[in-house]
Amino acid sequence: MTGTLRRPKRGLWRRIVDFALTDVNTLVDGGLDGAAIERLEEVLLEADFGVDITLELVEALERAASRGAIATEDDLRATLRARLAEALATAEPPAAQPPGGSPGDPPPRGAGPGVLLLVGVNGVGKTTTAAKLAARLQAGGDRVLLAAADTFRAGAQEQLRAWAERLQTDFVGGTPGADPASVAFDALVAARARDAAWVLVDTAGRLHTQDDLMRELVKIDRVLGRQVEGAPYERLLVVDATSGQNVMNQARQFGASLDLTGLVLAKFDSTARAGTVVSVVRELSVPVRFLGVGESPEDLEEFSPDRYLDKILV
């Protein structure tokens, strides 16, 4: 059998050095010239760093070089890492900080099951993400119930039910066209009866322009809150990391209707879309909770700024 060999993708750091700064001495000997600045900006923008962040990073490198703080390639990398770490640290805690801190932490004693609400546009991987979160919670010894509140898309119920069977977890769905909020209500009733620790509510994909569907999300959220105090503990917006700046638009749009507590970047490729994480955290103050890095149940990484920077600056 023959196949086409594909060159491994270069990480952000290698692309910066190879394409924009072919020789670190360009910085050591007097800073970036106009051509190098243009190439560096191009690399950062292609990696989905926003315009503002790109300009800030370039200016920071120029200032460091002009005062003699960059003498080696390691100095350059350390300077870039420090600036990125600073940008990632600017996110403020969401207004409705979940009591457990993040999925996987137990809900408050006596408060009922922990409730996670997953929202997003069509085709971003919400259902797969729900399954991955369920697998993660189960691995910690918790009983999980998956709720299919997408009662409109053909096959949505079956897809989540198939995941529930594969993971051997509880499942609640609804009939086609049923009120999604009623499915969420039934899921909480079932979770209490079965002593489930967590309920993961998968919702139908929708655009911000679909006012009726956005109101439906608010209704689901309200029903969950009425049944369990403080629920949902997480309102996670699932986005496709490869969609570039559309991630920013979706976060703004859904955030206008729901008090988002975090994002899940599905289909994340750290070598190609490194800037998406920084842009979201810096500009929207919405923390990234998880990165989806594959299709298997275990392919969900809890986001860590240090690990993230280690990945992209190699």
Give structural notes.
The chain folds into two domains: 12-88, Four Helix Bundle (Hemerythrin (Met), subunit A) (Up-down Bundle), CATH 1.20.120; 114-312, P-loop containing nucleotide triphosphate hydrolases (Rossmann fold, 3-Layer(aba) Sandwich). Helix 10 (246-255) runs parallel beside helix 11. It has an eight-stranded mixed beta sheet, sandwiched between helices. It has helices spanning 12-20, 25-28, 34-46, 51-66, 73-88, 126-139, 156-167, 180-193, 211-227, 246-255, 274-284, 305-312, and strands at 114-119, 144-148, 170-172, 198-202, 234-240, 262-266, 288-292, 300-302. The two termini are 33 Å apart. The relative contact order is 0.16. 46% of the residues lie in helices and 12% in strands.
Mean pLDDT comes to 83
* Largest sheet properties: 8 strands, mixed
* Structural class computed from helices and strand pairing: alpha/beta
Instruction: Give the oligomeric state.
Output: single chain
CATH homologous superfamily annotation of the largest domain: P-loop containing nucleotide triphosphate hydrolases
Q: Please give the count of helices.
A: 12
Strand content: 5-15%
SSE arrangement:
Layout: H1 12-20, H2 25-28, H3 34-46, H4 51-66, H5 73-88, E1 114-119, H6 126-139, E2 144-148, H7 156-167, E3 170-172, H8 180-193, E4 198-202, H9 211-227, E5 234-240, H10 246-255, E6 262-266, H11 274-284, E7 288-292, E8 300-302, H12 305-312
